[in-house]
Each structure stands twice: as structure tokens, then as C-alpha cells.
UniProtKB/TrEMBL annotation:
Belongs to the AAR2 family. Keywords: mRNA processing, mRNA splicing, Spliceosome. The lineage of its organism: Eukaryota, Metazoa, Chordata, Craniata, Vertebrata. InterPro entries: AAR2, AAR2_C, AAR2_C_sf, Aar2_N, AAR2_N_sf. This is Protein AAR2 homolog. It comes from Sparus aurata. It comes from the Eukaryota. Interacts with PRPF8 (via RNase H homology domain). Component of a U5 snRNP complex that contains PRPF8. The keyword Transport does not apply. GO terms for biological process: spliceosomal tri-snRNP complex assembly. Component of the U5 snRNP complex that is required for spliceosome assembly and for pre-mRNA splicing. The gene is AAR2. Residues 18-153 form the AAR2 N-terminal domain.
Amino acid sequence: LANVVDMDPDVARRLFEEGAFLVLLGVPQGTELGIDCKSWQVGPRFKGVKMIPPGMHFLHYCSANPPSCGGEIGPKTGLFLTLKPREILLANWDPKTEDLDFSASQNEEEVSRIRASLRDLDPFLGPYPYEVMRKWVSLTDRLSQEVASSLQPLSGRVCAFSDVIPVVDFRHTKDREEQPRNDTACQSMKEGLDRLPRMKHREGTELRFSAIPEKNYPPGATPAEITQCSMDLSYALERVLEKNHRLQPLNVLGELQFAFVCFLIGNVYEGFEHWKRLLVLLCRAEEAMRERKELYLGLIAVLYHQLGEIPPDFFVDIVSQDNFLTSTLQDFFQFASGPGVDGTLRKRAEKFKAHLTKKFRWDFDADLDDCAPVVVELPEGVTVD
């Protein structure tokens, strides 16, 4: 863990006085455990993290097999926590579930006992990695615990691998008879997929993202209205805001950040897919851009920090697929320079476009519809085998 000696003395003193504690007992050696943007392998003396700045954090961990059994690291589990000054959260490792059990935090006597023994525990608590604090805040400044709690699974755990079970549990002969036979070769990929049992998320384990409307247009829309709503996604965006963020529309930026953190730190691919869908909705909503200046000024700030954190190889492997980002942002910049857009937003969008063009060498002025996918130059240090 980071060395407190490297920290500014005033910051260290303030965190020592105001910081929260995560006391995590029994975490097996070799477990990969992290908080926010940094992780470590747990050593034999580890009993938690101290000097944690009050506020929201993302604790994440992967159980590991002992070296004698191969030492493989399991899938990542994470949870969002909001910590008060000097708060102590106490958890015990449950070897059966390979998870942290926080029920001890509800036991006031136990927490008081831990507080009284903090001096003895101190050598076994690693200091919060303060050097990543600025990055963490820049990735979550729009995300409240209220929004995080409403989006994370009811189980409270964000899991890299979905916990799925069959839609039909096949306990009855009739159910098994209706399942397609598997004793002959498949003639096509579709036939093979159709033979697999249909699966669903185990109740309480699914992320609860805002549902994005399947239809971009209102019921009873004319063909002209359908065409208009397909080019300008403002109708669909307003439905999402009305249904999920009616009181605070800017919380949709918190949802965008939640999805991104789940992907970037939690390894949840579903988070990336939802981030893309929300981004398309926001960037292709021309009328909303004229009406919701604050939302779009906020969007530029959120994207500025997110695009600065995506590892370079993701740009090549995932983000650059189908020119997703360049084409989506090209529409955004085109709409932001259109009539009726607030002058401050227009200028901010121009500066953001110039920043991205310089940093990633993306050409937003090329006509992407009339030419093959354009990748002018790979990000620095990236090669394609």
C-alpha cells in the first residue's frame, strides 16, 4: 500500500483525524483487493484500510486459489460504499461464499471494541491510496450514493460475471421433454444456440440500469414523426429522464459514471454496453441540446475525464469498433454547433472537439457515412499484431 510518508503532511494529518476505516478480517493472502482506482494483493498482515477520505468509494476484490492449487484469480466483486468521517466499517471474510460479510458492522459492541483497539490494529491497516483520489473524484463527481444504490443489484454486489440460472429448472420430466434434443449434430449456429437452455439473472443480482425505450417515437406517430424521432433522439431521452430521473435530470450523468466505473474498475461488460447506449441517446438528441444547457455542459466534463482514463488498447479493441465514438461524437458536435444552442455550450463543445482531435487524432470532419472506417493513427504505444 502507498507510503504515508509521501503524502502532504497537512493532508495526512487531516485524513488521520477525519478518515474512515475499513476493517476487513480474515481476507486470505493472495486475494486481489482494491478501493476506487487502485488494487493490491493481500499479504499475511493485512486487516484493512485506514485514512479513507469521507464520501463514496468502490471496494472491489477477487478471491484467489492458493499457489498449491494453481493460484488463479476469480471474477471480481465490487460494492459502492459511502463512509462518514471516522466511521468504522467492519467485515469478516466468509470462505464459503468467498465474499465479505458486513453484518458485524451492525453490532455496536463489536464496532466499539474495534475502535478501542485501533492503535493495535494500525500496523495492519494500509493507508488509502491518496494519489488516486483526484482521478476517482473526476470519475464519480456526478454520482451520489442514492443513485448508486438505485442502480446496483439488490444484493448490493456488482459482479463481473452474471449469476444466471435456467428459466426452467428441468425438475419435471415434461420440462425436460420439451427441451430440444442434443444427441444430433447441429446444422447451424442458430440451431446450436436454440438448443441451449434459456437463462435469466438470479433474482437480486442484476444491475438496475434505466431501461432505454425500444421505440424512439411516441405511440401513434406518423411516418414523418418516426423519421424525425430516429434522427433526433430527444423523445427517447426525455422518456428516460421522466421515468428514472424526473426530480433531478442531471442524475443521468451519475448513471453514465456508474456504468463506466462498473466497466473500467469492476470488469462488468454490461456496464460498457449501457454506457454506449446512454451516450448515443445523449449525443443524438438535438432538441434536448437546445433545451438542457446544464445537462450538456455536464456531459462534456464527464466525457473529458472518462475518455482520459480508458486504457489505450480499449480504443483499438472495443471503443474504436464501428467508429462508435467518432461517429457518435461527430453527431454531438454537429448538433452543438446548430442554431438555438447556448453560446457557452457551443464554445465548450468546440474546445472539447479540439482537445479530442489533438489527443486521439480523431477526424470529426470526415464524412463517416461515405468512406470506410477511419483510424488515422493508433494511440501512442499501441500496436496491432
